Amino acid sequence: MKRYIDLIQQTFEFPTREFGVDFNNNLLFNNVPLMDIIAKYGTPLKITYLPKISEHIGQARLMFKNAMKKYNYKGTYTYAYCTKSSHFKYVLEEALKNKIHLETSSAFDMDIIRALHEDGKINKETYVICNGHKRPEYLKHITNFINEGFENVIPVLDNLREVDHYLAHIKADEIQVGIRIATDEEPNFAFYTSRLGIRYKDVDELYMTKIKPDPRFKLKMLHFFINSGIKDTAYYWSELTRFMFKYCEMKKICPELDSIDIGGGLPIQTSVVFNYDYQAMIDEIIENIQWICNKNNVPVPNIFTEFGSYTVGESGATLYKVIDKKQQNDRELWYMIDGSFITQLPDSWGIGQKYIMLPVNNWDNPYAKVNLGGLTCDSADYYNTEAHSEDLYMPMYDEKAHEEQYIGFFHTGAYQESLGGYGGIQHCLIPSPKHVLVSQDEEGNFLTELFAEEQDAESMIRVLGYRSERKLAERLYNESSVTKDELDS
Q1: What are the distances in angstroms from CA 181 to CA 193, 209, 219, 247, 470?
Q2: What is the C-alpha to C-alpha distance for residues 35 and 44, in angstroms, rounded to an integer?
Q3: Taking the mean position of all CA atoms in its chain, how far away is CA 229?
Q4: How far apart are the first and last CA of the chain?
Q5: pLDDT per position as a tens digit, 217-243
Q6: Which residues contact 108 (CB under 8 A, 6 or more apart)?
Q7: What pTM, to 2 d.p., does this model score?
Q8: Which of 49, 56, 84 is closest to 316 using CA atoms?
């Protein structure tokens, strides 16, 4: 009978740079021995390989540098991280080691910006691009930052009324603003025009009537984002072209306009078969922008990006143990995991997101086609051939011989904790799993750090209102976990 490793080698171009199999037939992820981590921390388990974040930032900068050199592009490139992809401190601190800039989406993002500044991780020259529809608290934060001398906090106007708040409340001598352009969605999308941004026909009037008359205000950038991401499609090039012609039109009436923000959207690898040519795509973006500017006799703009998933997505992995196998009929074999797809990988069922799924151990065992089932009682808590890019094959293991089987989902580092309600209440009260950070020291040794324990029942009970803080303290006191003085405090 064929072995699972034979199937992989015959079916896929195995990405050996990131994945490998050691002499014990266990999987390596960026050379990290996953079975060692499982032995130390158990499952279910989320891990973040921090060096991958810096690696991707460096790669993006190099690709834009190469493209700009190739076409003798005179503008600059600025890398900003889209914080909503993962707000965790360990992500921001790793990313900021690379002297990047930031993009925000809500008022609470600004509290994170404040904390980063207080810790010396950013300074008042750091670009903070403020996107999204802004409610009063968000507007207040932006205003306060600018009034305090954060010279590169740039509110990107999302509607026609937003600028009125800044005109009335900002006291700084110079204020940079951006305008988000409302793009048309793909023809198969439910709505034809994005709800985000300002329509093309209103941009000129907004600038002429509200921004230009106030000498403090400078229109710094135009912002553009395609929801489907940066893809080599007629739709993407059409929207980028339309956007750049608008930039050229605005540049002629607004000399201080010198930048564009093309948003995020660089894809991450979601299958071991992945043929996206990053450099070729970025080359073509630079070439198109420069050609349109030359055609319109305007200088090329400086370029900002807001890569979120690309920054953090491939740093993440989610590991499970197979806790049961069920033969439901003559054809269907189910492997049940000690976690939940709905709560811990919500994109896999919510939008049908695909992830790289590989066995962690037993690579030399015989294999079988399987479906994967989660812990909840919901019929949607599964991962099978409909969700994955290929059939799922897993090593067969012998329970009678006390064999255990572990599996891993890879490139899960973006959005899953926030969408799944990290630390809160999740479907069927499935707890958030342990989370381990993996880094390397100067000698290349792997270091692990427990970021968070598995969520416990006590935290859920409190969130649900069954136990007040006082009752919790009394219970801990009765169990001798706290002193009387600590209880009173």
Answers
A1: 11, 17, 13, 10, 51
A2: 13
A3: 13
A4: 66
A5: 999 999 998 878 899 999 999 999 999
A6: none
A7: 0.89
A8: 49
